[in-house]
What does this fold into?
Amino acid sequence: MRHLVSVLVQDNPGVLQRIAGLIARRGFNIESLAVGRTHQPGLSRISLVVSGDDAVLEQVEKQLNRLIEVIKVTDHAEPHVERELALVKVSIAGMEERLEVKDIAEAFRARIVDVARKSIIFELTGDSTKVNNFVEALRPYGLLEVMRTGAVGMSRGEQVLKVREKKAV
Amino acid sequence: MNGAAAILKALEMQGVDLIFGHPGGTIMPTYDALYDSPIRHVLVRHEQAGVHAATAYARASGRVGVCMATSGPGALNLVTGLQDALMDSTPVVALTGNVPQALIGTDAFQEADVVGITQPVTKHNIQVRNVNDIPRIIAEAFYIASTGRPGPVLIDFPKDVQQAEFTGTFDVEVDLPGYKPTYKGHPRQIERALEALQKAEKPILMVGGGAQNAAQEIMVFAEKSGIPVIPTLMGLGAFPGTHPQCLGMPGMHGSVAANRAIHHADTILAIGLRFDDRVTGKVSRFAPNAHTIIHVDIDPAEIGKLIKTAIPVVGDAKWVAAELAKGAKKLNISKWLGQLEDWKTKHPFAWKPKPHLQSQEVIQAFWEATRGKAVVTSGVGQHQMFAAQFYKFDAPRSWINSGGLGTMGVGLPFAIGAALARPGELVIDFDGDGSFQMTLQELATLKKLDLNVKIVILNNGFLGMVRQWQDLFHARRYSEVYLADSNPDFAKLAEAYGIKGITLSDKAKLHETVKEVLAHPGPVLLEARVYHEEGVFPMIPSGGAAEDMIIENPRETVAGD
It folds into this structure.
């Protein structure tokens, strides 16, 4: 089962290595990992997509919580927003293809961010399924490059990830 | 004051009075400051011994052990010892030098990515980049190492940080928003645990290394409730080995009574242990009749990691055991106790006497002669298991071995650390000829300190535990385990370091030799030349369960002596 997990961390040097190392060492399967600063100085937020059953997920959360620099871990089981950004470069053979590809992009609400004689780069935002579907729709035309950020997410409503007592070591 | 002096002052403020270390290029500013510091330094002959000694110091005293090394090779020699301390949850602070910040990442002389390399072998690690952060980072390191589930913390000091002028303050606060260990177990969970035990027909209490701090509380709880107690290898001494309620240690080389008790128990209360595979055997067949497992641990990640837990209690062993003791009532389990007593009487740890001197009788003789009052260390292998089986530990913090990592060679450095932690007490290192040779350079440290450490090498001329497995599971193909043709004369080796060396091979002289060893002031090395093909039994083969227990050596009837 696929889980989106958000992790609030102290923005210290090496914290990403610590988290990536833990995941590799404990043999957890992750689909993606995205990281960025938050609005609060010194705090970063990481989104992980983990696959595994409930027992695996419980261990992922508990092991992440053991890291001193991890402040809070949440599995987004509750209603939440999930988004991923992708850049997709497609090869274009002729005018007809160009129009077809543009039609597909429009259906997915992807934006054109670069146009060249033989290629187009699209920018797409959506959940991971939407990105998958967009990439597959363009595959027959010749994918040159695909770059995805990995999923990021947050809970809907007032629920937030913040600094407070976590459940210990 | 420079950074180096600030390091030592901050250590002093943490109550540090002893550092085990070895100097080198990038840590030299701190060694220079040490020259004027009241902190005592023990010069080990290899950094690995320094971290092991600090580990034993911590385990024997309950305080934080401190070790120090230079950059690159010095720091990398700590890696094994850090993982050892991590797996056996021991509070250690390791200080390492590093190349100046301007050279970091340039493959400078004696440079290594020590923070990167030691990340998975420490509870936490950090490189100091600003000299004024020294007091805060040191305070945090000691706090992290010694609280919650204890563990090793490494602090890396680039040389320029040690040399820079310190203009900061020592008045620092520890503020770690991501680190709040839970000490007090949830009262409702403790109530549920007590209720479950009241209902149990076949309850047992298992205590691990986490219970070493809770021996008093566990005793009160155990005696009030009458529950049978099984201390794990790391828990030996947390409940007295000679107590009538003690069933001995469980697991691969545990007692018949302990393993059968676990197999038949309907309710297990586990305090401060992590269900290591050497305790459980095959997890799916562990404790098949236990409908209720109550797991008390300060590390929530240990609860449910391997064993399904009905009643989790996150909290400190001492605190939770005290609460359990308050609510304990006498359990009505006389039939169960009768069964356990029967197994205990029928199958004590025992050995089949042979004409040769035997490891088991040597350990037993030392136990009798010291009335169980020594602090005991060991290397890793057969001799370690024999020590755990035949030296009955009655006091907490009296048995210091490498349980989780199984690090050969810890015996002598552990003994040095333990002796410094417990001045005036006798320390015995039961060692193997294989294990001992991994760190024997520390005879020099021992000689210099003139500690009351008795090294007892149970020399069977083999890497005995590996040989035993080859015997049982590899058709007696003894691949690369023979040492006897090239072992040194251990007594002469000791004499070369100026330490009294004694050799014993005559069974009849065992007791007088033990007396002689104990009577000699200061360090002694006794080489006991023991039967070379002894096996450790009972044994549950790796991946097996209690039902697969081999109680006696199957070779004894076939091969004889």
